[in-house]
Every structure is written in C-alpha cells, then in structure tokens.
Amino acid sequence: MPTLTSISPLSGPPGSTVTLTGTGFTAGSQVACPVLVPTVFVSATQLTAQIPDLTGDPGQSISVGVTVVNPDGTISGALVFTVQFPADTTQSWTTVSAVAGEVPGFQRNGQISDQQIQTWITSVAQSIAAAMLRRDLPLDPTQWQRSGANAQPTPEGILEMINRLGAAARLAAAVASTFTQGDWAIRADLQKAFLAEMANLRNGDYDKIFLPAAATLEPGPQFGGGNTDNREGWPERSFRKEQIF
Questions:
Q1: Buried-exposed string 10-29: b where 16+ CB fall within 10 A, e elsewhere
Q2: Which own/partner contact pairs does 113-121 have at CB distance under 8 Å and 24+ positions apart?
Q3: CA–CA separation, 33 and 48 (whole Å)
Q4: pLDDT higher than 80, residue 111
Q5: How many Å apart are CA 82 and CA 1, to the nearest integer?
Q6: Which one of 90, 109, 173, 214 has the fewest CB atoms closer than 10 angstroms to its CB?
Q7: Domain 3-84 has what CATH class?
Q8: How far is the C-alpha of 79 from the C-alpha of 48, rounded, in Å?
C-alpha cells in the first residue's frame, strides 16, 4: 500500500508540477488530485505529477486532495494542495456595485453575472488606459500631481466616472436586449454620457486634473491694449490669444 508523506510545493497556480514523497510507489503508480493525472515515476519513494488546469475566480483559491493510486488499487492517504487562481491585474477604476447602481431596477445575481459585469469594466478600462497613454498621462496614481488636498474633481473620481458609465452602458444594453421591441432610454443616456466623457479625456480637457502644470489653450483677448477701430468705427482687439503669427 502506498504511503504519501509530503507534497512540494503545497500551493500554486493551476498546472503546477508537484513532487510527492512517500513509500511503496511503483512504476505504475498514478497521482489523483482528485482525478488521475499523468505521473512520472522517479523512485519507490518519489513521484512527480501536474495539478490539473482547473478554473476559478481570479484571486481566489480552492483546496484539492492529492493521493497516490497503485496498480493493485491500493490508495494512499490524502494530502491537501491549494490551487491559487491568479488575480486579474488589469487596471480598472470602478466596482460591480457602482455599475449595477447606474441601471434602475437591476437585480444582481440573475441572468447577468457579476463576472460578466467585471468583464465589461475591464474592457472599458482598457480604452481609458489607451486614451491616457496617448496623452502621456501616467497610469500610476502615485505619479499624478495633486493641485490641493481638497481639490475636486480628483483624478480617481474622473476615471471611476468614465469607467462606471461605460460599463453601465453595456449592462443597460444587455438588459434592454431582453425587451421585445424598442430601445431603452437609460441605455442611450449612459452611452451618450460615456462617449462625451471619453471625448473630454481624449481631447485633453482633463489633463490639468492629472497634471496641474499641463498647458491649456484659453481662447479670448490676450491683453487689454492695442485697440483699433474697425471699418464701422467700433474698437476691437488687435490680437487674440488663439491667433497664430
């Protein structure tokens, strides 16, 4: 009868290779965790095997029992291996709760899962990040220049708003697709608001919120002097800031 005394490592991502130490192993021994997996016989006291490619929620973990099964059907005692699912490192700025709150009457944990909403959040966040990079705005919050302790709006607030509106527009579209006819006004409103805020970000309207020293274009008279009369005898400025000479 095989005896399993240790597993190394004791935790890791799906597909991890583990080394099992014990006694009574044979060339036909197989590792089960809990299903049988391809096993390499090293010696009567050592085997190697690969943890199955299990799936789970990002950042979470599950425990699986690992045993050794010999060809004669005898089975060792079980040791626990912790499967750790890698966290989603894609940057996003809002939450599932905030997005769901933008759609009146939407009930979570129904046909549209929180995981699907998070997918929309991540997708919209990628578009936001691309727009920021095109404007040379840093994605690292520690690099954002703060104009004041109580300055509003904050860089985080702007990104959260855009991310929330974009994901909520997709959620509203999914909810509206269940209607038999017509469109849903809230979907159109959310989409319009999202596109307007994205345009502001792409056009540089929010640059100074991230970098207060960023240059801005302010059309209008540059100075008060230099008045001349036009053909009708009315005074007007000789130069304007938006003019290029």
A1: eeeebebebebbbeebeeeb
A2: 115/57, 116/174, 117/167, 117/171, 118/88, 118/92, 120/166, 120/167, 120/170, 120/171, 121/92, 121/94, 121/95, 121/96, 121/163, 121/167
A3: 12
A4: yes
A5: 25
A6: 109
A7: mainly beta
A8: 14
Residue type, 63: S
Q: How far apart are CA 106 and CA 104, in angstroms?
A: 6
Going by pLDDT thresholds of 50, 70 and 90, the confidence category of residue 185 is confident
Residue 6 to residues 74, 76, 82, 111, 159: CA-CA distances in angstroms?
A: 18, 12, 14, 43, 48
What single letter denotes the amino acid at residue 33? C
Which has the closest alpha carbon to 68: 43, 42, 31?
31
**What pLDDT is attached to residue 86?**
78
Report d(CA 153, CA 77) in Å as an integer. 60
Say whether 136 sits in a helix, a strand or coil: coil
